[in-house]
Amino acid sequence: MNTVNAAIIGGGAIHAIHAEALQQLPNVRLRAIAETDINKGRQLAALYDCHFYHDYREMLWDDTIDVVHICTPHYLHKPMILAALAAGKHVLCEKPAVMHTLDVAEVETALAHARGKLGICYQNRFNPTSLAIKHQLQEGAIGKMLTIKAVLTWSRGGSYYTASPWRGKAATEGGCLLINQAIHTLDLMQWFAEGVTRVKGVVDNTWLAGTIDGEDSAMATFAFRNGARGLFYASNCHTANSPLQLEIHGEKGTLLLEGSELWRIHAETRQKLASDAAPDGSGKSYWGVGHHEAIRQFYDALHHPTAGSVCSIHEAAKSLQIVDAIYRSSQLRTWINLEK
């Protein structure tokens, strides 16, 4: 099998997870990194023994590069995806693919005429607990789904936003809590319940008022396509990063994700099904350990399209549509119907 050459655009915190995952894949080589901070870029290139590009557009001219990983601020994702596809590259982009639902069509049009594949990194779908939940639901282990309840409470203080000024601003982040931290939870909820038909929600800026111009807290109620209802609450105002609490109530029992462990509860019995704890204790337990698997699956799909699993732009648009609907619902104080 020929070696696949990869490049990473962006040297922020998330790039390291991509670089580590690439180093563990057979027949994959990190050939280049693009970073606007010249000193940081050169240091990272030396660390990974790869080429350094100050301008990602120059890097796209390198015909030896097969795959581009986009690990940059939200507002750069769409133009970088379009440029990389136009250059004939495969693309794996951190979420969100775009900042607004209306931008999805432009990416879909470009993809239809491109040689490369596009994947969006919704890594929490690959957490052991997420895969176990999906399996339990497909097997009918708890019967008809009645409700999904999700609570996400993390801590993001002023230093988090001042360290990366693009965060917390509608113009560059596309929002705040919902589109950055909570979008993974919204994606899981709609994935488990086969999509959302309507939403009513509220967003607010409380403890972080004056620091960000977006929301630091949000709540919403959903009607799912499978007939169940959804209850959702999220905030960046906690004093710690708590693991996601997710409960799926069915006619025959309950699936409970608590402390990164998944339990099936029926009457008086409680059975542990899966855990997201990394065997070596690495990673951030409060957001799961699915990144490496998501990246591996993307590369598997490049070699064997039926073997790997990729979150497409169509799939990624579903959670973005929910985010947009919550923002609109909060402004209009009414239910928002989502198109099929």
TrEMBL record:
SUPFAM superfamilies with a match to the protein in the record = Glyceraldehyde-3-phosphate dehydrogenase-like, C-terminal domain, NAD(P)-binding Rossmann-fold domains
Residues forming the GFO/IDH/MocA-like oxidoreductase domain are: 132-255
Task: Cite the Gfo/Idh/MocA-like oxidoreductase N-terminal domain residue spans from the record.
Answer: 5-116
Question: Which one of the record's GO molecular function terms can you name?
Answer: nucleotide binding
Query: What InterPro entries does the annotation carry?
Result: Gfo/Idh/MocA-like_OxRdtase_N (IPR000683), Gfo/Idh/MocA_Oxidoreductase (IPR052515), GFO_IDH_MocA-like_dom (IPR055170), NAD(P)-bd_dom_sf (IPR036291)
* Superkingdom, natural source: Bacteria
Q: State a single Pfam family of this protein.
A: GFO_IDH_MocA_C3
Q: Which PANTHER family match?
A: D-GLUCOSIDE 3-DEHYDROGENASE, UDP-N-ACETYL-2-AMINO-2-DEOXY-D-GLUCURONATE OXIDASE
Name this polypeptide is given: Gfo/Idh/MocA family oxidoreductase
Instruction: Supply the source organism for this entry.
Output: Citrobacter farmeri
